[in-house]
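Problem 12. The chain below contains 328 residues. Write out its predicted structure in C-alpha coordinate notation.
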Amino acid sequence: MTTLRKACRNCTASKRKCVVQLPKCTRCVQKGLECMYDLEPLNTPAGQPETSPTLSFNPSICDSPGYCIMKTLKFCGSDIDPAICRPGHEDALGIIRLGYQPVPDLVRAGKPTVFVHPKLQLHSNYNHFAAFGGTGKSGVSYEIFNRLIQIDVKTVPVEEALTALQALLLYLATFLFSPSQIEQANAEKFLDVLSEWTQTLLESAQTRMPRNKSPWQQWLFGESVRRTIIMSYVLPLALDSFKYGYCSYWLFVESLPFDKRAGLWMAESPQAWIAAAQARTGEEVGERLTSVHEFAESHDGSDPNFCGDMFLDLLAFAHNGYKKYKKS
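Solution.
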Protein backbone atom coordinates (compact mmCIF):
# COMPACT_ATOMS: atom_id res chain seq x y z
CA MET A 1 0.00 0.00 0.00
CA THR A 2 1.24 3.53 -0.81
CA THR A 3 2.60 5.22 2.33
CA LEU A 4 2.73 9.02 2.51
CA ARG A 5 3.74 11.55 5.10
CA LYS A 6 0.68 13.02 6.85
CA ALA A 7 1.35 16.50 5.45
CA CYS A 8 3.19 18.00 2.49
CA ARG A 9 5.92 20.60 2.93
CA ASN A 10 3.63 23.56 2.19
CA CYS A 11 0.95 22.50 4.67
CA THR A 12 3.59 21.67 7.28
CA ALA A 13 5.22 25.09 6.92
CA SER A 14 1.83 26.84 7.07
CA LYS A 15 0.63 24.64 9.92
CA ARG A 16 -2.51 23.84 7.96
CA LYS A 17 -4.42 20.57 7.68
CA CYS A 18 -3.23 18.54 4.71
CA VAL A 19 -5.56 16.14 2.87
CA VAL A 20 -2.91 13.77 1.49
CA GLN A 21 -3.46 12.53 -2.05
CA LEU A 22 -1.58 12.23 -5.35
CA PRO A 23 -0.25 14.09 -7.28
CA LYS A 24 -1.12 17.09 -5.04
CA CYS A 25 -2.91 17.57 -1.76
CA THR A 26 -6.24 19.41 -1.81
CA ARG A 27 -4.82 22.70 -0.47
CA CYS A 28 -1.97 22.82 -3.00
CA VAL A 29 -4.41 22.11 -5.85
CA GLN A 30 -6.65 24.97 -4.73
CA LYS A 31 -3.74 27.42 -4.37
CA GLY A 32 -1.79 26.24 -7.41
CA LEU A 33 1.27 25.35 -5.32
CA GLU A 34 4.02 22.83 -5.93
CA CYS A 35 3.24 19.87 -3.69
CA MET A 36 6.08 17.78 -2.26
CA TYR A 37 6.23 15.11 0.42
CA ASP A 38 9.35 14.25 2.39
CA LEU A 39 8.43 10.57 2.04
CA GLU A 40 7.34 10.00 -1.56
CA PRO A 41 5.34 6.84 -2.40
CA LEU A 42 7.42 4.05 -3.86
CA ASN A 43 4.96 3.24 -6.62
CA THR A 44 4.36 6.75 -8.00
CA PRO A 45 4.74 6.44 -11.79
CA ALA A 46 7.39 8.69 -13.31
CA GLY A 47 6.12 11.53 -15.46
CA GLN A 48 2.45 11.20 -14.53
CA PRO A 49 0.55 14.38 -15.54
CA GLU A 50 -0.48 16.49 -12.57
CA THR A 51 -3.96 16.93 -14.06
CA SER A 52 -4.77 13.23 -13.78
CA PRO A 53 -7.71 12.40 -11.48
CA THR A 54 -6.67 10.81 -8.20
CA LEU A 55 -8.45 8.65 -5.68
CA SER A 56 -8.56 9.91 -2.11
CA PHE A 57 -7.93 6.78 -0.09
CA ASN A 58 -5.47 7.40 2.72
CA PRO A 59 -5.96 5.19 5.78
CA SER A 60 -3.74 7.49 7.87
CA ILE A 61 -6.42 10.22 8.13
CA CYS A 62 -7.58 8.75 11.45
CA ASP A 63 -5.30 9.74 14.32
CA SER A 64 -6.70 7.18 16.79
CA PRO A 65 -7.99 4.17 14.85
CA GLY A 66 -9.36 1.40 16.98
CA TYR A 67 -9.88 3.39 20.16
CA CYS A 68 -13.20 1.67 20.62
CA ILE A 69 -11.36 -1.65 20.58
CA MET A 70 -8.66 -0.46 22.92
CA LYS A 71 -11.06 0.87 25.52
CA THR A 72 -12.57 -2.61 25.78
CA LEU A 73 -9.15 -4.04 26.66
CA LYS A 74 -8.21 -1.78 29.57
CA PHE A 75 -9.60 -4.23 32.11
CA CYS A 76 -7.94 -7.25 30.49
CA GLY A 77 -4.66 -8.76 31.55
CA SER A 78 -1.70 -8.56 29.18
CA ASP A 79 -1.86 -12.30 28.59
CA ILE A 80 -5.49 -12.30 27.43
CA ASP A 81 -6.19 -12.52 23.69
CA PRO A 82 -8.85 -9.86 23.04
CA ALA A 83 -12.05 -10.96 21.34
CA ILE A 84 -14.45 -8.90 19.28
CA CYS A 85 -17.28 -11.28 20.07
CA ARG A 86 -17.74 -14.87 21.08
CA PRO A 87 -17.33 -17.46 18.29
CA GLY A 88 -20.58 -18.12 16.47
CA HIS A 89 -22.03 -14.74 17.47
CA GLU A 90 -24.98 -13.68 15.35
CA ASP A 91 -23.48 -10.22 14.69
CA ALA A 92 -21.24 -11.76 12.02
CA LEU A 93 -24.28 -13.21 10.30
CA GLY A 94 -25.99 -9.86 10.63
CA ILE A 95 -23.18 -8.27 8.62
CA ILE A 96 -23.75 -10.78 5.83
CA ARG A 97 -27.51 -10.23 6.00
CA LEU A 98 -27.19 -6.45 5.81
CA GLY A 99 -24.22 -6.05 3.51
CA TYR A 100 -24.28 -8.78 0.90
CA GLN A 101 -27.50 -10.78 0.68
CA PRO A 102 -29.70 -7.89 -0.61
CA VAL A 103 -27.27 -7.05 -3.44
CA PRO A 104 -28.66 -9.29 -6.25
CA ASP A 105 -32.27 -8.13 -5.77
CA LEU A 106 -31.25 -4.48 -5.60
CA VAL A 107 -29.10 -4.85 -8.72
CA ARG A 108 -32.03 -6.31 -10.63
CA ALA A 109 -34.21 -3.44 -9.42
CA GLY A 110 -31.63 -0.88 -10.53
CA LYS A 111 -31.14 0.48 -7.02
CA PRO A 112 -27.90 1.40 -5.21
CA THR A 113 -26.51 -1.40 -3.06
CA VAL A 114 -23.95 -1.27 -0.27
CA PHE A 115 -21.00 -1.23 -2.69
CA VAL A 116 -22.44 -1.30 -6.24
CA HIS A 117 -24.13 1.72 -7.82
CA PRO A 118 -26.28 1.15 -10.94
CA LYS A 119 -25.62 4.65 -12.30
CA LEU A 120 -21.85 4.25 -12.50
CA GLN A 121 -21.16 4.32 -16.23
CA LEU A 122 -18.95 1.43 -17.34
CA HIS A 123 -18.17 -0.09 -20.70
CA SER A 124 -20.19 -3.30 -21.08
CA ASN A 125 -17.03 -5.31 -21.76
CA TYR A 126 -15.66 -4.21 -18.39
CA ASN A 127 -18.71 -4.92 -16.24
CA HIS A 128 -18.26 -8.45 -14.90
CA PHE A 129 -20.65 -7.74 -12.06
CA ALA A 130 -23.52 -7.09 -14.48
CA ALA A 131 -23.20 -10.64 -15.83
CA PHE A 132 -22.47 -12.20 -12.47
CA GLY A 133 -23.93 -10.20 -9.62
CA GLY A 134 -27.57 -10.10 -10.54
CA THR A 135 -28.10 -13.84 -10.73
CA GLY A 136 -28.03 -14.85 -7.06
CA LYS A 137 -26.79 -18.16 -5.74
CA SER A 138 -28.83 -20.28 -8.12
CA GLY A 139 -27.30 -18.50 -11.13
CA VAL A 140 -23.66 -18.84 -10.14
CA SER A 141 -22.33 -21.58 -12.39
CA TYR A 142 -18.86 -23.05 -12.48
CA GLU A 143 -18.35 -21.67 -15.99
CA ILE A 144 -19.18 -18.10 -14.93
CA PHE A 145 -16.95 -18.28 -11.90
CA ASN A 146 -14.10 -19.92 -13.80
CA ARG A 147 -14.11 -17.11 -16.38
CA LEU A 148 -14.09 -14.56 -13.58
CA ILE A 149 -11.19 -16.08 -11.68
CA GLN A 150 -9.01 -16.14 -14.82
CA ILE A 151 -8.96 -12.33 -15.01
CA ASP A 152 -5.57 -10.72 -14.44
CA VAL A 153 -6.66 -7.66 -12.46
CA LYS A 154 -3.13 -6.21 -12.65
CA THR A 155 -3.34 -5.71 -16.42
CA VAL A 156 -7.00 -4.95 -17.14
CA PRO A 157 -8.45 -1.40 -16.95
CA VAL A 158 -9.19 -0.25 -13.41
CA GLU A 159 -12.95 -0.18 -14.16
CA GLU A 160 -12.80 -3.87 -15.05
CA ALA A 161 -10.76 -4.67 -11.94
CA LEU A 162 -13.45 -2.96 -9.84
CA THR A 163 -16.33 -5.00 -11.27
CA ALA A 164 -14.32 -8.23 -11.10
CA LEU A 165 -13.64 -7.67 -7.41
CA GLN A 166 -17.32 -6.85 -6.79
CA ALA A 167 -18.37 -10.09 -8.50
CA LEU A 168 -15.83 -12.16 -6.55
CA LEU A 169 -16.92 -10.50 -3.32
CA LEU A 170 -20.57 -11.38 -3.88
CA TYR A 171 -19.68 -14.96 -4.80
CA LEU A 172 -17.65 -15.49 -1.63
CA ALA A 173 -20.29 -13.84 0.55
CA THR A 174 -22.86 -16.22 -0.93
CA PHE A 175 -20.92 -19.40 -0.17
CA LEU A 176 -18.68 -18.70 2.84
CA PHE A 177 -21.69 -18.94 5.18
CA SER A 178 -23.45 -21.69 3.22
CA PRO A 179 -24.96 -24.59 5.21
CA SER A 180 -22.87 -26.87 3.00
CA GLN A 181 -19.39 -27.45 4.41
CA ILE A 182 -18.17 -28.35 0.92
CA GLU A 183 -19.34 -25.00 -0.46
CA GLN A 184 -17.72 -23.22 2.48
CA ALA A 185 -14.42 -25.00 1.97
CA ASN A 186 -14.40 -24.28 -1.77
CA ALA A 187 -15.11 -20.59 -1.16
CA GLU A 188 -12.38 -20.27 1.48
CA LYS A 189 -9.82 -21.32 -1.14
CA PHE A 190 -10.33 -17.97 -2.86
CA LEU A 191 -9.91 -15.67 0.14
CA ASP A 192 -6.28 -15.11 -0.84
CA VAL A 193 -7.47 -14.10 -4.32
CA LEU A 194 -9.89 -11.65 -2.72
CA SER A 195 -7.04 -10.13 -0.71
CA GLU A 196 -4.75 -9.88 -3.74
CA TRP A 197 -7.42 -8.30 -5.94
CA THR A 198 -8.34 -5.82 -3.21
CA GLN A 199 -4.75 -4.65 -2.85
CA THR A 200 -4.37 -4.43 -6.63
CA LEU A 201 -7.50 -2.31 -6.97
CA LEU A 202 -6.33 0.08 -4.27
CA GLU A 203 -2.96 0.57 -5.95
CA SER A 204 -4.44 0.79 -9.47
CA ALA A 205 -7.16 3.27 -8.53
CA GLN A 206 -4.62 5.65 -7.04
CA THR A 207 -2.53 5.76 -10.21
CA ARG A 208 -4.92 4.90 -13.06
CA MET A 209 -8.15 6.77 -12.33
CA PRO A 210 -10.45 6.99 -15.39
CA ARG A 211 -10.27 10.27 -17.28
CA ASN A 212 -12.91 12.53 -18.81
CA LYS A 213 -15.65 11.76 -16.30
CA SER A 214 -18.17 14.25 -14.97
CA PRO A 215 -17.83 15.30 -11.31
CA TRP A 216 -20.68 12.93 -10.36
CA GLN A 217 -19.22 9.98 -12.25
CA GLN A 218 -15.77 10.66 -10.85
CA TRP A 219 -17.17 10.75 -7.32
CA LEU A 220 -19.23 7.60 -7.96
CA PHE A 221 -16.19 5.72 -9.20
CA GLY A 222 -14.00 6.81 -6.29
CA GLU A 223 -16.66 5.97 -3.71
CA SER A 224 -17.40 2.64 -5.42
CA VAL A 225 -13.72 1.74 -5.08
CA ARG A 226 -13.58 2.81 -1.44
CA ARG A 227 -16.77 0.96 -0.48
CA THR A 228 -15.78 -2.17 -2.40
CA ILE A 229 -12.38 -2.24 -0.70
CA ILE A 230 -13.94 -1.78 2.74
CA MET A 231 -16.48 -4.54 2.10
CA SER A 232 -13.70 -6.79 0.77
CA TYR A 233 -12.00 -6.53 4.16
CA VAL A 234 -15.25 -6.72 6.13
CA LEU A 235 -16.16 -10.12 4.65
CA PRO A 236 -13.14 -12.09 5.97
CA LEU A 237 -13.39 -10.02 9.16
CA ALA A 238 -16.94 -11.28 9.65
CA LEU A 239 -15.82 -14.83 8.88
CA ASP A 240 -12.95 -14.72 11.39
CA SER A 241 -15.19 -13.13 14.01
CA PHE A 242 -17.77 -15.87 13.53
CA LYS A 243 -15.18 -18.65 13.70
CA TYR A 244 -12.74 -17.37 16.31
CA GLY A 245 -14.29 -14.30 17.96
CA TYR A 246 -11.63 -11.89 16.72
CA CYS A 247 -9.88 -10.62 13.60
CA SER A 248 -6.20 -9.67 13.44
CA TYR A 249 -6.68 -6.66 11.15
CA TRP A 250 -9.73 -5.09 12.76
CA LEU A 251 -7.83 -1.87 13.56
CA PHE A 252 -6.80 -1.53 9.92
CA VAL A 253 -10.41 -1.84 8.78
CA GLU A 254 -11.39 0.89 11.23
CA SER A 255 -8.86 3.25 9.62
CA LEU A 256 -10.25 2.89 6.07
CA PRO A 257 -11.88 6.06 4.70
CA PHE A 258 -15.07 6.81 2.77
CA ASP A 259 -17.42 9.74 2.15
CA LYS A 260 -19.80 9.78 5.11
CA ARG A 261 -22.35 12.30 3.80
CA ALA A 262 -25.76 10.64 3.94
CA GLY A 263 -27.78 10.84 0.74
CA LEU A 264 -24.97 11.21 -1.79
CA TRP A 265 -24.62 7.51 -2.55
CA MET A 266 -28.38 7.03 -2.77
CA ALA A 267 -28.77 9.81 -5.36
CA GLU A 268 -29.68 8.46 -8.80
CA SER A 269 -28.99 11.60 -10.84
CA PRO A 270 -26.32 14.31 -10.81
CA GLN A 271 -28.95 16.85 -9.80
CA ALA A 272 -30.04 14.77 -6.79
CA TRP A 273 -26.38 14.21 -5.90
CA ILE A 274 -25.62 17.94 -5.90
CA ALA A 275 -28.77 18.65 -3.87
CA ALA A 276 -27.86 15.96 -1.31
CA ALA A 277 -24.49 17.65 -0.81
CA GLN A 278 -26.21 21.04 -0.50
CA ALA A 279 -23.91 22.36 -3.20
CA ARG A 280 -24.51 24.56 -6.24
CA THR A 281 -22.38 22.67 -8.75
CA GLY A 282 -20.83 19.23 -9.07
CA GLU A 283 -17.36 20.70 -8.67
CA GLU A 284 -18.36 22.02 -5.24
CA VAL A 285 -19.38 18.58 -3.95
CA GLY A 286 -15.83 17.20 -3.78
CA GLU A 287 -14.94 14.49 -1.26
CA ARG A 288 -15.23 14.61 2.52
CA LEU A 289 -13.62 11.48 3.83
CA THR A 290 -13.66 10.06 7.32
CA SER A 291 -12.51 6.75 8.74
CA VAL A 292 -14.80 3.87 9.66
CA HIS A 293 -13.79 4.39 13.27
CA GLU A 294 -14.50 8.11 13.39
CA PHE A 295 -17.83 7.71 11.63
CA ALA A 296 -19.10 4.87 13.82
CA GLU A 297 -17.89 6.47 17.05
CA SER A 298 -19.79 9.65 16.18
CA HIS A 299 -23.01 7.62 15.95
CA ASP A 300 -22.53 5.38 18.99
CA GLY A 301 -25.74 5.48 21.03
CA SER A 302 -27.59 7.66 18.54
CA ASP A 303 -30.41 6.90 16.13
CA PRO A 304 -29.26 8.65 12.95
CA ASN A 305 -30.99 9.03 9.60
CA PHE A 306 -28.76 7.63 6.88
CA CYS A 307 -31.22 8.34 4.03
CA GLY A 308 -31.58 4.65 3.23
CA ASP A 309 -27.84 4.08 2.78
CA MET A 310 -27.35 0.54 4.08
CA PHE A 311 -23.56 0.92 3.97
CA LEU A 312 -23.71 3.53 6.73
CA ASP A 313 -26.16 1.36 8.67
CA LEU A 314 -23.81 -1.60 8.32
CA LEU A 315 -20.76 0.26 9.61
CA ALA A 316 -22.68 1.56 12.61
CA PHE A 317 -24.01 -1.94 13.32
CA ALA A 318 -20.66 -3.70 12.86
CA HIS A 319 -18.88 -1.20 15.08
CA ASN A 320 -21.44 -0.46 17.78
CA GLY A 321 -23.65 -3.56 17.73
CA TYR A 322 -26.97 -1.77 17.42
CA LYS A 323 -29.62 -3.97 18.97
CA LYS A 324 -32.25 -2.80 16.53
CA TYR A 325 -30.32 -4.49 13.70
CA LYS A 326 -30.29 -7.84 15.45
CA LYS A 327 -33.89 -8.42 14.53
CA SER A 328 -34.28 -10.82 11.67
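Discussion. The first strand starts at residue 257 and ends at 259. Students who got a different answer should revisit the alignment rule from Section 12.3.
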